[in-house]
Amino acid sequence: MKRSTGASLAFMMFLQYFIWSSWYVTMGTYMKENLGSSDVQIGAAFSALAIATMISPFFVGLVADRFFAAQRIMGVLHLLGAVLLFAATRVTGNAIFYWTILIYSLMYMPTIALSNSVAFSQMTDPGKQFPWIRVFGTIGWIVAGTLVGNLQIEKSANTFYLAAAVSAALGLFSFFLPNTPPKAKTEAVSGAKAIGSDAFVLFKDKSFSVFFIAAILVCIPLAFYYGFANPFLNEIGMQNAAGKMILGQVSEGLFILAIPFMFNRIGVKNMLMLGILAWILRYVFFAYGYADPNSWMLYSGIILHGVCYDFFFVTGYMYCEKKAGEKIKNAAQGLFTFATYGLGMFIGTWFSGFVAGHYQTDTGHNWQGIWLVPASIAGAVLIYFLLFFKEKKEVSPGLPV
Question: Is the pTM of this model over 0.90?
């Protein structure tokens, strides 16, 4: 891969995740401040990306991959997305805001798979080259959060303006990316295949089934963090909350480097259990450290994001790939994404909204009561996983003989 091609792909990834970080992390705070939204309405708005995650494989697999060059359809989607992000700032009602965010999410989520397709199509050694390209997405997320926090715009529409401007820039830039032509129309494609149905055979393996259920359930605690961490930190008086939440992405970038070394040393079960345990600790820290906005517990809860996410979800992707083997590994990854960021997050976003609404008070929220709920769910998942997940240290493909 040419250095200039690598640079353009890295810039693409930077902008791709800069857009997401700009508005997504602080959307709950924005809705409280500008729309007077209830917690249930905030949870519903965050569920929009989960719905889009479940739908986007159909669009990418059945339409985009077969009829359009990936970089061109990505450009069109980002340009439309810029218009919708701008339109979101003109909305004053929660119902219309929800539909605006849902339609935008349906534009944005397919671009993640499309950007990956553009990157992979140019690589001579994806195993070595992709991580170095993808890390610029994490850098983009960090830079966006730092800007939003330091500019003190997390409660204003400026977060959406920033995301819209960068979305328009990436939309235009996409037309100059390396050409990634559509796949052959003769390939057999169906809606079931688009979500990874070829990997259903893995459910014959008990350990994989246990892992799959645990992965969906862990997304409920994950949804609490995405939807309510920023409103929580702002409500208790933490200054530059969005900027400080970036510590979570920094730790994510650091801990991900440890996974290849630990995966085979301590085994997949211990890796996944450490990830679940981190969710429990994070929410216990939030539950008991909220009285002081500068408490070490709050900072620890934020920094634990690296362990929470990497040790469960990144390890989970690696487990799916090893379990599936070469033939159906892509289907297994698609199925895992559909189940977690789609189904699991959809359940979690709605549930978190109802829980936060239940613990609302005249002066704000009973945050201890709120955070102990996902801590308890993660604790139950940990016990379930400990008792029923029997995978060996060396993961072997779970396909039937």
Answer: no
